[in-house]
Amino acid sequence: MNRLRYATQALNGMNEEQLRDLQWLRLRQQIHYCLGTSEFYRRRFSELGIDERDILSMEDFQSLPVIMNKEQERRSQQESLEHAGHPYGSHLCCAPEDVAITATTAGTTGVPTFTYTLARGDVEMLNASVALMMGHAGILPGERVLFAHALGIYATSAVLPPLRASGVLPIDVDVRGGADALIQFAELTKPVAMMTTPSLAQFLIERMPERTGRPVESLNLKAVFVVGEIGVGIPEVKARIESAYGCRGYDWIGPAGQTLAFSCDSDEYHGMHAVTPDHDLYPLDLVDPITGAHIDPVDGAEGEAIYTSLKRKAVPLLRFGSGDIVRVLRGECPSCGFTGARLRVVGRSDDMLIVKGTNVYPAAIRTVINEFIPEVTGHMRIVLTQPPPRVEPPLVLRIERGAEMRDDDLERLSARIKQALHDRVHMTPQIEWVENGALERAVTKTPMFERRYEA
Ligand SMILES: [Zn+2]
């Protein structure tokens, strides 16, 4: 087994305490830099009554309130558009001329924000971690990787320059051109790996034989990297992708474009390994999504991930409430021996539903449903009859039945699914069965909800 190490070589000889000391040193420098260069941060510190001189330890810092969130970021962006003539936000700490890469969130829930803005120096941090991910998966310089995402200004495009810097040649095909174009370019360019979303990786398993008569295994890939949804973290999805493509499936996450975590080369899934603890506190700063109280990031702890940059020039984030709910895994990875923090994505706080006082994450429901493949296909929707998060019980799930399921067996299957959801997600749904193949297949992100109310 290829032991996974940190992206910055110097960290690999450090013990946990030395690493913690380095993070604290960097954090102090980052705070000082933010206050020295950004009007936004000076104002936020004063609004929240925070004095830099009172932050004497990592614990002090982590007990501060959330300094920034999406809404603050949008306001900051609007401010810089009006007064400074650029879209990066008034929390931009370098000259706008030093920005080398910028990319935005998808903007599905409001105005896109330029969160993935990197100065020239920042790009180098990402280069090292992307090169590590390629190397870990056995992708060699000079090889081609099919890069199937929404291209251009969107977030994932921020890893294209680091891919090129690692010597890998991305074959970037915009997914908005459709799955058939992807299949064509895959066959024309013979890539050794593919980077895409879990939905699309699974869609191609069905689509490719229909179009070409050949299974996806004939692409001869060494690796499939997925991002953007909970994918390989679900055992059945990992198994499906790996057996269909005949190679390892990895999931990866690049929160705010500055840090990187990815799963290791292992049959069993052991979470995404945070390989850049010198760039960001991720995922070791957690808060309760409701109360905002700090959560000790011990093994198994679950909470909203707070992003804090440690060495960023362009748009450093200090205690940024991300809305991502993660579970932290500590201790050596049982498979590859990685000693740093690992994480699993649990869901988004803005997707969270409240059913009879219980917090329910749609992704957790999907994880349980996927465990019933092949009796179900894994395609499902959560029906909302009123605006979330409150749900009048029972929560209605529309679940697509597996191809071989007989009508007589559906009732028993419903009972087993309900029991599993009751035990694991603490709610009992009502199940509506949907014919095999009837739910629309999404090319990029699979919708989680079916809304039956006037927005
Ligand atoms: Zn590992």
For the residues shown, what is the average pLDDT? 93
Count of helices? 11
Strand line-up across the major sheet: 4-3-5-6-7-8-9-14-13-12-10-11
What is the highest CATH level, the class of the domain at 353-451? Alpha Beta
Distance from N terminus to C terminus (CA atoms, Å) equals: 51 Å
Radius of gyration: 22 Å
Show unreliable segments.
none
Structural class by secondary-structure content? alpha/beta
**Major beta-sheet overview:** 12 strands, mixed
Q: What is the CATH topology of the domain at 353-451? A: GMP Synthetase, Chain A, domain 3
Walkthrough of the structure:
This protein is of the alpha/beta class. The protein has a domain at 353-451: GMP Synthetase, Chain A, domain 3, CATH 3.30.300. The chain has 11 helices and 21 strands. Strand 6 (223-226), helix 9 (235-245) and strand 7 form a beta-alpha-beta unit. Helix 1 packs across helix 2, helix 8 (198-212) runs parallel beside helix 9 and helix 10 crosses helix 11 (407-425). The chain binds zinc ion (ZN). Zinc ion binds at residues 4, 264, 266, 270, 273, 333, 335-336, 338.
Features:
455 residues, alpha/beta, four-stranded mixed β-sheet, 21 strands, globular, binds zinc ion
Task: Write a brief caption for the model.
The protein has 455 residues and is an alpha/beta fold. The protein contains 11 helices and 21 strands. Strand 8 and strand 9 form a beta hairpin.
